[in-house]
Task: structure prediction
Amino acid sequence: MAQGIGFALTPVVSRLFSPVDFGLFGSFTAVSGVILAGVTLEYTQAIMLPKEKGDALNIFFVSCAATCLVALLCLAACLIAPKGMLELLHASNAWILSLLVLATLLGGFNRLCQGRAGRPDLRGDSGRSVREP
Result:
């Protein structure tokens, strides 16, 4: 259903944005996808492995620290070499660099939450189903 809606809206979206905008979006998606591939250093996959809740929480916090570190490295790259980053993104406006850092941080925390949600003892009450009498 969602794919059908996206396909039906393609003519509308193509009239709203220029080919340059689509190219910028593609470049941004490609660069952020490469960064997001290793933003948590894949520690989120290890959250499920420990038998103890404390060990799983330690892995979760290490993964949080890795996400913040990668986001800081991305910020440093954007501050040290903004022209190179803009050329990589094929962009002319510097605001896209702040969006790249934000996408790195939010994408990493999204992966963290997904990894945490797979472990029932870390979910709390939000993951349980409630049976009404």
Summary: The helical segments are 2-8, 10-16, 19-37, 53-80, 82-89, 95-117, 120-123. The radius of gyration is 19 Å. The longest helix spans residues 53-80. Residues 18-118 form one domain.
